[in-house]
Amino acid sequence: MDGADVAKRNTSKCCWMVLNAQVYDVTSYLDQHPGGAAILLAQGGRDATIEFSRIHSPDVLQYLPTGSLLGPIDTSTIGALAPPTNEEALRSLPTGEGLRHLSKCVVTGDFEVAAKMMLPARSWSYVSSSSNSGLSMAANLDSWSAVRFRPRVLRDVQTVSTVSSILGHRCPFPFYISPMGILGRAHANAEVELVRGFRRSGIHGVISTVSTKTTEEIASSLTEALERHDDSRDVSAAPQLHFQLYTSPDREAAIKLIHRVKAAGFRSLWVTVDTPVLGKRTIDRRQLAEEALAMGSDEQARAAGLGIVTHVRQNQVSASLAWTDLEWIKKEWGGPLVVKGIQCAEDAKLAMDYGCQGILLSNHGGRQLHSAPDALSTLLEIRAYCPEVLGNLEVFVDGGLRDGADVLKALCLGAKGVGVGRPFFYALAAYGTRGVERCIEILAEELATAMRLVGITSLDQVHPDLVNARRLANEIWRPLDSRL
Ligand code: HEM
Ligand SMILES: Cc1cc2nc3c(=O)[nH]c(=O)nc-3n(C[C@H](O)[C@H](O)[C@H](O)COP(=O)(O)O)c2cc1C
User: Whose CA, among 98, 196, 288, 444, lies 20 to 30 Å from 227?
Assistant: First the structure.
């Protein structure tokens, strides 16, 4: 196909674009595109390959209606295409201010400041967005400050070990990197850049179903990073990847994905259950509406503001997912299963009854239900009403943990491990792999220091008496009808 011909097709009546040297007609997909029509229209008549790869894995092309692929572009005519738009160009730093030197990032909050300075508005709204008024996210951040330590002194804390394990796999710390979708919004090299940051420390990470790179590419980039730097590390502490599953309502598609994940060597499957539908992402909606208005589409803007255009593909999350589905998921997966998004003691117990190996107490970083419980409250409920869960399952928590000391608090109250999300998105966005490494180092150092200051030297010494557990227990929610 001829570049000059493609260049003319840039309206909502006829919109073509080049992706990986192929010409696509996306006209009939404009209204269905979960990222909104405006962003596609802006790529009309251009080579959108770079921008596309910042957001999507090639897997999403399967969602285009049949017949959208028109054929290869005649490479000698590429110069006739409209010039590519490049979101990177929007990454401008305020005059006079540069990116803070990485050595000056000393708490995880420093990455947020750095990322905010340089992320384009759309990427910033994507990561910082929370549901409705933002209450769930704010409560997550506040919750951990309610926990105070009761340190023991004079205990010889010269040498400490932060070594732990996740589902039988040794890891250097009791924290891991939470799954976050569309990391192309943080960094052009997305998940590949993220997992390279796991190499030095041996940390574990959970990879999202909606990653920008393919499952196989992410797994092999970690293997390659390890091989390239064969620094005779302790192999028992090699970094490990786990996979977060959004269960497609199309069971065949879900099974196919589970098998791909298994073949790629992921260690465990974390099934997200707090997202039968997408929560109300307020900042995102404003951003999408603004973009649609800028493209002159009032109708699209109206729909975006009401969440009718969402960022989640229709066949990505299933509103009909139920407990019994865990049975076939478990069978197809055949390995350790974690339920991600448990928010009360009753469901924690159910997960145990369904034979899961782990649960993650999480409200999705405050991005789903408005006024959702923070993970600390759910952990305290479990301690009060079904403590046997803590003995039988690996219980993980996430949401608002920003300091290695927060990690220690969660462990004292019975958590096996802690997920950290946004700080790693911000670190990746601002500094790439080196930012990820630095963020791990900061959390690790804070954890080791907190351990010494409360008087323990290894994680098998954590105990509820090291925090104000009794006072916290008085404040927990008591179900009116306790049939746990
Ligand atoms: C033409 C083929 C395309 C298809 C089939 C497609 C499909 C999709 C799908 C299924 C989603 C939902 C999220 C996901 O599943 O990953 C999505 C979201 C999105 N897409 Fe596309 N897309 C295409 C092209 C593009 C292009 C060229 C751009 C940008 C230049 C783009 C930008 C976005 C954005 C920004 C989102 C929302 C992600 C967010 O939450 O920030 N897409 N798209
Ligand atoms: C930008 C972003 C994308 C996310 N994407 C996913 C996802 O694809 N799947 C999922 O189960 N959880 C997702 N989450 C939720 C995280 O896994 C985790 O529960 C949450 O971020 C933890 O809270 P924190 O960010 O306060 O540490 C996402 C969170 C953020 C901030």
Answer: 444
One domain, residues 169 and 23: no
Whichever domain contains 8, its CATH number is 3.10.120.10
Domain for residue 98, yes or no?
A: no
Give the pLDDT of residue 92: 42
Q: Is 29 known to be catalytic?
A: no
483 CA → ligand 2 middle, Å: 31
Total domain count for the chain?
Answer: 2
Tell me: do 151 and 246 sit in the same domain: yes
Q: What is the pLDDT of residue 231?
A: 63
Q: Are residues 77 and 138 in the same domain?
A: no
Please tell me which residue in 47, 110, 274, 347 is annotated as part of the active site.
Answer: 274
* Ligand 2 center from residue 180 Cα (angstroms): 5
Q: Does position 152 have pLDDT exceeding 70, yes or no? A: yes
Q: How far is the CA of 62 from the centre of ligand 1 (A)?
A: 12
Regarding whether 201 and 344 lie in a shared domain, the answer is yes
Q: What is the CATH number of the domain that holds 230?
A: 3.20.20.70
Ligand nearest to the CA of 183: 2
Weakest-pLDDT range from 121-130, 176-185, 396-405, 451-460: 121-130
Q: Is 420 in the pocket of ligand 2 (CB under 6 A)?
A: yes
In the set 364, 398, 406, 431, the catalytic residue is 364
Q: Indicate whether 134 belongs to any domain.
A: yes
Please say if 463 is a catalytic residue: no
Q: Is 274 an active-site residue?
A: yes
* Centroid of ligand 1 to alpha carbon of 335 (angstroms): 31
Query: Does residue 246 have its Cβ closer than 6 Å to ligand 1?
Result: no
| Range of the structural domain that residue 29 is part of | 3-81
Mean pLDDT of all residues in the chain?
Answer: 91
Is residue 290 included in any domain, yes or no? no
Instruction: Report whether residue 372 contacts ligand 1, using a CB cutoff of 6 Å.
Output: no
- The reply to whether 198 falls in a domain is yes
Candidates 24, 126, 176, 246; catalytic one:
246
pLDDT in tens, 258-315: 999 999 999 999 999 999 998 998 988 898 888 888 888 888 889 888 887 655 555 5
239 CB within 6 A, ligand 2: no
